[in-house]
Design brief:
The chain is of the alpha+beta class. 41% of the residues lie in helices and 15% in strands. The strands form four sheets. A five-stranded antiparallel beta sheet has the order 6-5-4-1-7, with no helix packed on it. A three-stranded antiparallel beta sheet has the order 8-12-13. A three-stranded antiparallel beta sheet has the order 9-10-11. Strand 2 and strand 3 form a beta hairpin. 43% of the residues are buried.
């Protein structure tokens, strides 16, 4: 009996056999829906027999993954602290520091009330946590008007809904089929001119998202990255939520759940994870492989390392 699953990394290799040295026979993109029929060690076998190949279990989430009590967002004590620090605990972010140090200081001042207890609970240094937050969202999860910062991914919406409703999808959305994460465009109707989705502000992201919600609300929720940690909606179970909508509602209501979401995504519902161990050791390239995918792990790792170093520098002054 096969099980439905979702690819959680930017790209995922399909291997002929259950080994990292086995030949690559295909690739899957983040958000791709797959069927797996069994597990061999750290590998899932794709439905269709041996010829269908194997994918690594670290980059796949089964639909049946339960929401466990080990998630931090279910811990009332960790959910209780207020986000901002009291004035005497803040870092001066105004004078004599670099722009990166300023961003790190502002992130700590904004979230330190929750970050401190979470770092102690998970044995992650504040520098590591600040590094990830600065790189993923420039240290901010909500707009100044109080709206959740999102990124709507056209290609994920295709996987979640569009490929079964091709005409309706193509009337509103497009992307580069060879590099699916690029050239995202949208329009309200087939009679309208195409608009660019990314890099032009949250207005465009929300406009595209709302068009998708009118077509299929659940699939649209699965297709956005949310808040300060920019976690995709289809990863809701990986951070302790029963649905992408439940995750969205929590993130929109209170920014503290962005921080809890980051830590839950790193740790999972158990006591530890490969991602958590990499972050504890300061192995940022390895961490980025799990968090962002293989494609740009070195680039993301370098950025996280630089932001973490900036925090350490400014916090010690």
């Amino acid at each position: 009996m096969s099980m439905h699953a979702t690819v959680t990394s930017a790209t995922l290799n399909i291997r002929r056999l259950a080994s990292t040295t086995s030949p690559i026979i295909g690739q899957l993109d983040r958000g791709a829906r797959i069927d797996v029929q069994g597990r061999t060690g750290d590998w899932y076998q794709l439905a269709g027999g041996m010829d269908a190949g194997f994918v690594h279990a670290d980059y796949v989430r089964l639909d049946s993954t339960p929401v466990a009590d080990g998630f931090l967002c279910h811990n009332d004590e960790l959910c209780a602290p207020t986000l901002p620090l009291v004035p005497e605990q803040t870092i001066n972010a105004n004078k004599g520091i670099t722009p990166m140090e300023q961003a790190a200081a502002k992130t700590w001042n904004r979230y330190g009330g929750v970050l401190g207890p979470l770092c102690q609970s998970t044995s992650i240094t504040p520098a590591a946590a600040i590094g990830v937050l600065c790189v993923e969202s420039s240290g901010q999860g909500m707009t100044d008007s109080g709206r959740l910062i999102i990124r709507f991914e056209n290609h994920v919406f295709w996987d979640q809904w569009g490929k079964r409703n091709e005409a309706d999808f193509r009337a509103h959305f497009s992307y580069d089929a060879t590099k699916r994460w690029t050239k995202h465009r949208y329009r309200q109707s087939a009679a309208d001119a195409w608009k660019t989705s990314h890099g032009v502000g949250q207005g465009a992201e929300w406009e595209a998202f709302n068009i998708a919600r009118a077509l299929n609300d659940d699939a649209a929720m699965q297709s956005i990255s949310m808040g300060a940690p920019q976690i995709m909606g289809f990863n809701h179970a990986a951070i302790g939520y029963d649905s992408a909508r439940a995750m969205f509602d929590r993130f929109q209501a209170d920014e503290r759940y962005h921080i809890l979401g980051l830590f839950d995504f790193v740790k999972g519902g158990g006591k530890t994870s490969r991602m958590l161990e990499a972050l504890r050791r300061g192995q940022y390239d390895q961490f980025a492989t799990y968090y962002n995918g293989n494609g740009q792990a070195a680039a993301y790792g370098a950025k996280i390392r630089a932001a973490a170093s900036a925090y350490s520098s400014v916090a010690s002054r």
